[in-house]
Model the fold of this input.
Amino acid sequence: MSKILEVKDLKISFRTTNGTLKAVRDISFNLERGKTLAIVGESGSGKSVTSKAILGILAGNSIIEGGEIIYDGKDLLKITEEEMCKIRGDRISMIFQDPLSSLNPIVKIGKQITEAMLLKNKGTRRSAREDFNSTLALLKESMISAAGGSDKEKIGELVTTFDKFNIEAIKLENDYNTARTAAEELVADIDEFIFMMEKKQKQDVKGRLKDFAAKLKTVRTPYLTKNYDSQLTTMSGELDRARASYQQIKGEGIQLSQEISELLAKLNTLLAELLAQPRPDFFRIGYYMLKNPGDDLSGRPVEEVNEMTLRYLEDNFMNEFIQLAEKGIAHSFNTSLEKKKALLPKLQKACEFYLGSFDKVSARKMLKEIADEVDASIDRLETSKDSIAYTFRTALDNAIDRYFTAIVKNPKEEARYAKQSKKRDALIARGKTVDWKVVPKVVYDLDELKANISAVVDNLILHYENHIAVADSVDFHARSIALVDYFKGKASQIVQHITKRMAKEKAIKLMTEVGIPEPRIRYYQYPFEFSGGMRQRIVIAIALAANPDILICDEPTTALDVTIQAQILELINKLKAERNLSVIFITHDLGVVANMADDIAVMYAGKVVEYGTADDIFYDPRHPYTWALLSSMPDLDTKEKLDAIPGTPPNMIYPPVGDAFAERNKYAMKIDFEQQPPKFEISPTHWAATWLLHPNAPKVEPPRIITDRIERMKKAGGID
Amino acid sequence: MSNTNNNEVLLRVENLCQYFKMGSSELKAVDNVSFDIKKGEVFGLVGESGCGKTTTGRSIIKIYDITSGSIFFKGQRICAGTRSYKDAIKAAKKELRTADSARKAELEKIIADNTEAIRQAKFDHDHSDEEYAKTLVAKVEADYAPRFEEAKNDPAKLAELKKAYKEDLRVAKKTKLITNIQMIFQDPIASLNPRMTVREIIAEGLIINGIRDQKYIDEKVYEILELVGLVREHAGRYPHEFSGGQRQRIGIARAVIMRPDLLIADEPISALDVSIQAQVINLLNELRERLGLTILFIAHDLSVVKYFSDRIGVMYFGNMVELAPADELFAHPLHPYTRSLLSAIPLPDPHAEKRRTRITYNSLAEHDYTTDLPSMREVAPGHFVYCNDAEEQKYKKELGL
Done:
């Protein structure tokens, strides 16, 4: 499993007129590829702020006090707005809480869905082209140096051919896919039409027949319909004739003639036959077509074509290319390995340097020295990016920065605190009532900050040592195949030219996918013409339009009712499985999360108070706040009085000294008001920050309502 | 929740239809819905958004003029629509053209009856409050007559009594039947006037009702504030100074200060935070016990409705499709829509959730109403389902009857 997003020690505050509001205080979590992380907590706990920080859309009065958000080898808190634009919406997408405020009231729905597709398309194509070219150039270079300077021209030729036929193949495949989807849609449409007619629903028969004929035209493409050409031509002719001769008899209701229903049934069987054909492999065909531009393969049986082109490709090109690429990759890997080995003693030295005494200038100088070399030691031909090495520079820079800022800030903070408390004490001594509190002082532990700096270097050393230890067992053949796949993926992005019409079709498909009836009519409507549930579906469709890696859902179903909520959750789960999407799911309803989440983080007052897998949180909750959340909502078997959480969350301008939940917690102990609890590990996947887990704490049972429910659930699920 | 064993019907809704004009066509928001609410019970109304549950609630409190049907509150008709009578007249007039003389007389009688019914409906609809005020006035007069008789010889006492009588009479004249029904709205922020203090918001109902005694009003406001879990000091503040849960408490206070018999709670907890939702549910439960309230609870969160209600009505596209006691409905859901609704409830149990299969409901595929039209039928005692003959047999078989 690979981490796709990593949040480390994130701290965010907001400047307000009353003081600095500490919204997020030191939270860390990892998001694995293809998994769902749920963040649960009530409003004001900092869940939304965290998600907004990931997307870089925090309000203007926000201060990011520290931390890192690492995605794809970049720290999202440090990159420029331009770079962020490429990630936001395209790679990381968000569904907002309030569907009404996230839609533009004066722009039609269709335009709002297609807008991003059309705008992003050009940029995606360009950046995919850049990635493709730069990686291919790197590969070429390392192939040449692996061969020791000989065969330079041959390698150059191979690389150019690879570049060309890839693009050719993907173009063919795009056409094929479009036609295939059109055929699938047509089958579904005809089925629905016949069903509605049987149920005597009102239908625009002529319009529908016209639609079918138009769609039939888009189905036709060489590799899909070559063998069916004549049949399709007669079919569309018959459709046109049937439409012309169709007349509705007044007063008799709508009825289809025998002829039309037979025709539609025939069309459906034909299309089903068409779709049952196996898929041609265009990667191979592309190469064949490049070498033999005159030949036409489309008429022949698919199996035969696949077999023949495979042989052709392997004999003439692929075997050679893969062999060379393998060598190139091995070469690049070994060079990087050598560099890493050579770098280790230097890193050790740096580590020691940062443990000793240093000033700002020398620390920066050291940083520059080693960071440049670390950058150079990265194996750029590796398809999965090594985030520790990639973010080493920013991580180290931050750690140094924080240390020197604290040196300056700490005395000021002490002075302010002393001044305020003195003033307050003086007022109290004069017998006045004081209605304000002294803002608690925020003093950083300098030793800890200093240790953090060398820890960053140490982390990298450990990482590299692991790397070197497993270096012998690297499978270069598998890596070369992965690299070819990477090129294929980039090539498909390069040729994906989206026209307005295609965007519309895609939007309508998305709208159908998210469950909007009559999408063709709805496409031209304004947001106010939609109900709340429908609006939220539109928002989801917009978020999915760009096919993102990470989807952040900020209370997506809070405004919806159960059936639609269930549908939308299922939809998100389905899309997650299909697209290997990673989801951050923010909600206050634990019930919703049970089916969605792989991991759950419970947040309160800007901190994660309990973290674990879904099973951990639901079957073995440990933090009193998790208990409170679980027991405050009834389930279907609840009869007794609900355990409401008394009071409201604390004012985060004056964050409590101890555990933030202590004031509302009936299990609170004296220490809860004095000191913040550390994380207590319960199992490798599960921890909670509460003093109740301390070995010296008294044994406390969760509320009856929860233990009973867990008992019941275990019985029903057959778990011991 | 305990089922109340009393059969006094507080509110009766009969064939309620509420249509909205949409250009040339009509939107049937609520179509032919009937149910009773007994005194002291909590009646839950569930369904997805747009199914007409909120419209039903608003029609009962006369925010809309209903299209057809009647609503009886405490035995008196408070709302009445005329559409059904008009349709009957139209049909009769059409038939009149071709009918023979014997039938003609019959039809003319139908027309006359329905015309009278329209007149009566219009009168009831417009004058229900006045009629109620009249009974109150009569009661006050009956109350004071013996006391006047008693104080006849004491001029000082008589003057005092006269003053009190005048005051009571004025209040009685102003009292409306509809104030016995109060409503709590979904969004506590949008339903409170930001320029009024909490005191003004809560006391507004009393003032409109004709009470002028400031001391009495203040006392009432304080009493009600404490009842809903706020403190006296809050009376002078403005709504924006409160958290979401406290605002909803203010909304509840505004409703219960009129000492209503029926409270319509239109999604009172959907806009609130989790921890606050439980507080509000507990508060409503407490108020219900202390004040003997009857509640029409409109919500889409089924676990909450199940927890809170005695009987539940399930609505689908303007129709009531199933009505049964809460436990019965969840134990034996009969209508396919109810089943689909129940299968969609999220549970705080990951293993159960993974096994859950959601049932989808498609009314066209599910029912065949081409020959036999459905109606509301009592399949088991107290358990009503919207079905036709064939389906009724099927459901009865399922229940083992």
Notes: The mean pLDDT of chain B is 88. Residues 98-175 of chain B form one domain.
